[in-house]
Amino acid sequence: MLYKKERPAILMFKDGRYYEGIGFGATKKVHGEIVFTTITGAGYNETLTDPSYKGQIVIMTHPLVGNYGVPAWEKDAYGIHKYFESDSIKVSGFVVNECCKNPSHYESVKTLNEFLLEENIPGIEWIDTRAITKILREEGVQLGLLAVYNPGERPNIEELRSEVKHVEDPNLRDLVAEVSPKEVRVYSPSKPRGKVIVIDLGVKNNILRNLVQRNLEVISVPYNYSYEEIMAYKPDGVFISNGPGDPVICKDAIKVASKLIENSVPTMGICLGNQIIALGAGGSSYKLKYGHRGGNKTVINPKTKQCYITSQNHGFCVKGFEGEQFNEFLTNIDDNSNEGIIHESKPIFAVQFHPEASPGPLDSLYLFDKFIEIMGL
Question: Is there a catalytic annotation at residue 166?
Answer without folding.
Answer: no
